Amino acid sequence: MTTTVSITRRATFAAAHILCRPEWTEERNREVFGLCINDHGHNYVIEVTIRGPVDESTGMVINLKQIDGILRRELIDAVDHRHLNRDVDFLKGIIPTAENIAQAAFHRLAPHFRPAELIKVRLVESENNSAEVTAG
Fold this sequence. Notes:
Elements: E1 4-17, H1 26-33, E2 40-53, H2 64-79, E3 82-83, H3 98-109, E4 117-126, E5 129-134
Parallel strand pairs: 1-3
Antiparallel strand pairs: 1-2, 2-4, 4-5
């Protein structure tokens, strides 16, 4: 009988951003985004959950070193110690809320774990705020 197992891996990065819509007035931006209309940064935590069958020869769904390499190459190197509004191509034109960053990360990472499947990305922006994106 084949069973499916999920494994979660965690990584961190630090990045700055602002939350605003350039076409809105400063008053409207402040009303919606509060103090986040100013440059500020976070120490983000990203967790990825991958699902698949356990390989009988290794006992793993996917090698953790492989997950770490994909995270580093496809996400962390692009966002760590960067300004998300200005420096990150795949976030251009997107308000870098936790929700939008999590969605962008999910879509960027998903193709790289095959044949296993990325089923969840959880992005923790602060101790009070996180966003999750799930497959399907």
